[in-house]
Amino acid sequence: MIHQKTLLATAIVCAMASGPALALTDAQELEQLKRQLGTLLERVDQLETKTQNAEARARAAETKVETMSSTRAPAVVSSGNDKIRVSVSGHVNRALLVVDDGEESELYHVDNDSSSTRLRVIGEGDVSPELTVGTAIEVQLESNSTASVSQDNEAVSGDSVSDRRLEVYFDHDRMGKVWMGKGWTASEDSSEMDLSGTALVGYSSTADIAGGIKFRNGAGNLSTTRVGDVFLNLDGLGRKNRLRYDTPSMAGVKLAASAVEDSAWDTALTYAAEYSQGTVAAAVAYSDQESNDGQVNGSASFLHNSGVSVTLAAGERDSESLDPNFVYGKLGYQNRWFDAGKTAFSADYHVANHAQERSDKAKSVGVQMVQNVDNWATELYVGYRNYDLERAGENLDEVDAVIAGARIKF
Length: 410
Fold this sequence. Notes:
two-stranded antiparallel ribbon; elongated; 19 strands
């Protein structure tokens, strides 16, 4: 457009200077021609401005179309605060449980308490390259938990929603991590280090898959003692309101301690490492609360590169009336025989003493299988367990339990 304007002005000037027909001797005529030239140039400027505006609108429209047609997926979860990123996760774990209590067999539709159905929301913000602040809300939603169903309560009623975590934390790469609120105490999971790949259906807390089932006495009548009352794994102080501190990992070693509600406290040492021959995970913990004079427990698990795993756990509590203790062992093997995912097998043995009465000796044997289906984020599992309780003055029938189900994570 600039070139066109220049050519137009040049042409008019040339016309003014050419031949006798255009010769101007009168000053008024010359002034009139100058005004005409100015008008023409002004008109050219207007046309140029309109053209530029039209081109700008076209570019804006093109950009808008490209944005609207973008294949990038929108954010599924957004935060009400742009300084915090939010993630939602959890899983659903449903199963069928068949129990033979020595007198009759029954089928239960259950939520597997080894890994209960749950929903969590995590919010985190990076204060600096080394410091992260976070929040955690996690709730458990169970219908017919394996910890609750029994021969006289096949369909559990009432509130099945409970909080697992309600906490804030501050995680510094060099200074460690501080947790405040309800969540894992330092000693939680210290009896449950397990690399077998089958903990979903069988681990040191052997009562989980049938904890609500009652033993029958020699006359065939239900007793008041449940499987969950006597098969203990003394796994620290669990999840409670506490103030907890974890050191940074030093060569795979971490030290944690927490001041827990009701004047309790605990501390734990954990270790995790990979070697040329396989992977190791281990923990040992001490906890103290008003109801006893202290508890020591721990566990260790080794997964060899061949797929063979060995897991051990033990613990003892010192109290005035009872001194419960337990020992647990598991042998496992896992391999990827199918494209879908790894398959894991295991067999375990558990002995718990003095859990409810001084004479109690509870023994359990179990076998487990878990099939991973990676593309479905799913684990299919089946397990069998026998529960045997020996108690002075009582003849209690053994309990056999078979569970089969699926856990799908999201």
